[in-house]
Specification:
single chain; alpha+beta; SH3 type barrels; five-stranded antiparallel sheet; two-stranded antiparallel sheet; 2 helices; 7 strands; 15% strand
Amino acid sequence: MKRRQFILGLTVGLCLMTQFSWATKAYVSDYFEITLRTGPSIENKIIAMPSSGQPFEVLGSEGDWSHVRMVKADGDSVEGWVLTRYVSTRLPWEVQAKTLSAENASLKEKLTHVEKELNEATNRERDLTRQLKERSEALQRARADYDSLKSRAADYLKLEAAYTENRSTLQTAQADVQRLTEEIRKSRYSQRNRWFLTGALVLLVGLMIGLVIGRQQKRRRTSLYS
């Protein structure tokens, strides 16, 4: 007896859940224009003519009819009854096709935009690669110039050190050259004087010899005639 009461209660509960279930979103089936009536019967007044793809909320059902709420074109909501066989929880194919077409167009637009950005990024990368190559080559040239300048600077410093080291020796050599030049000049002057004096002395001696010889010859002549 209790088992029968439990089964009966479960059946009644399921029926009530079917009659008073939560609102479910649904659509008018494909390629239809149906009537929305004030009650679950064709004798009830028609209050709207929803077409295929019109969304509404299913509030409940009774026999072959479904109690629905929909939003009209003017923005007002209205409740009524429609035949359940014209109700589908699946989005109609025509609406799906339009939706997919719109999504496809949007994706194509996005793809075009992405391709444009990709091309711009590729061009930027190409320009950056070229600039990097130019900068690298310029850096290599700068390093080579720096090494060359460094080497020449080192040679110059060596030469400067050698010059500084030998400058005193050079000054001493210059002083020696000047001293030797002066000594040579003095020696040449002294030699000229000696040659001059020697020549004068020789001339004087020659004159004296000539006078002596002349006197002797004169005496001899005098002695011959006396």
